[in-house]
From TrEMBL:
Alphabetized Pfam families for the sequence: PNP_UDP_1
Gene3D superfamilies named in the record: Nucleoside phosphorylase domain
EC id: 3.2.2.9
Protein's recorded name: adenosylhomocysteine nucleosidase
Gene Ontology terms for molecular function: adenosylhomocysteine nucleosidase activity; methylthioadenosine nucleosidase activity
A GO cellular-component term linked to this record: cytosol
UniProt cross-references to InterPro entries, sorted A to Z: MTA_SAH_Nsdase (IPR010049), Nucleoside_phosphorylase_d (IPR000845), Nucleoside_phosphorylase_sf (IPR035994)
Family annotation (NCBIfam families): MTA_SAH-Nsdase, PRK05584.1
Stretches assigned to the Nucleoside phosphorylase domain: 4-249
UniProtKB keywords: Amino-acid biosynthesis, Glycosidase, Hydrolase, Methionine biosynthesis
GO process annotations (BP): L-methionine salvage from methylthioadenosine; L-methionine salvage from S-adenosylmethionine; nucleoside catabolic process
Length: 251
């Protein structure tokens, strides 16, 4: 039962590469995949690329070529939900594509052919990721407070809807408009990023369990680009490394 572990950026893959045992590099579809073991579990580490199409190609390759049994996405996201702060962790309960719009033929955000806007993540994997994230932040969260802009409290773990789109959301106006429009249709989105919904859809097509854990790097507002660079360099890779390694040990 091989587990695929995807990230968008090399920095997000961070320490996992260093912990990989018996690493074997494979190239396919213009991507580099690393097969090996983490804590005795067979894994494939992959960079999804940035955006939904790149991520869908990577996910399809992992299903077809590598025969993985499940996929887990780890990386960063912009917090848009109330109380979702930089340094917090979000485990996705489900995903939608916030830039998907086939209305008025189909309801806004619904993906034609699926009869739904939201794609579920796997409940059992979510439970493990939540446990791993909570345990890690309980141990180490306080150490990160100094690295977090305006942190008034220790980092928290959230569980809920995540939204993907082919945009880096970088103004407060766009972020609040996006959140308000989704909320008006009962989609209470916690965070935005650019790949997860695509991987969730591919996993649904292949009948593979999928889960995602994202560290909040910015508030998807006017300073998102500043927070993002600082955060990915200093914090996100350590989070991903520790949370995913704890998760793999529970499999
Ligand atoms: N990933 C991290 N921050 C993001 C943002 N603000 N918009 C889209 N993807 C992100």
């Amino acid at each position: 039962m091989t587990t695929a572990i995807l990230s968008a950026l090399p920095e997000e893959q961070g320490g996992l590469m260093h912990a990989l045992q018996q690493p074997e590099q494979l190239q396919h579809a213009g991507r580099i995949f690393w097969r090996g073991h983490l804590h005795g579990q067979p894994v494939v580490l992959a960079l999804s690329g940035i955006g939904k199409v790149a991520a869908a190609t990577t996910a399809a390759a992992l299903a077809e070529r590598f025969g993985v049994a499940r996929m887990v996405f780890t990386g960063v996201a912009g917090g848009v939900g109330e109380g979702v702060q930089v340094g917090d962790v979000v485990v996705a309960q489900d995903y939608l594509q916030h830039d998907f719009d086939a209305s008025p033929i189909f309801p806004r955000w619904e993906v034609p052919g699926y009869g739904r806007a939201r794609m579920d993540c796997d409940a059992a994997l979510n439970a493990l990721l939540l446990e791993a994230a909570r345990a890690y932040l309980a141990d180490a969260g306080a150490h990160f407070v100094a690295d977090l802009p305006n942190a008034a409290r220790a980092p928290q773990v959230h569980h809920g809807l995540m939204a993907s789109g082919d945009r880096f959301v970088s103004t407060a106006q766009e972020s609040s408009a996006l959140r308000a429009a989704l909320l008006a249709s009962d989609h209470d989105v916690l965070a935005v990023e650019m790949e997860g919904a695509a991987v969730a859809q591919v996993c649904r097509d292949y009948g593979l369990p999928f889960a995602a854990v994202r560290t909040i790097s910015d508030r998807a507002d006017d300073s998102a680009h500043v927070d993002f660079a600082h955060f990915v360099q200093n914090v996100a890779s350590r989070y991903a490394d520790h949370i995913v390694q704890r998760f793999v040990r529970m499999l």
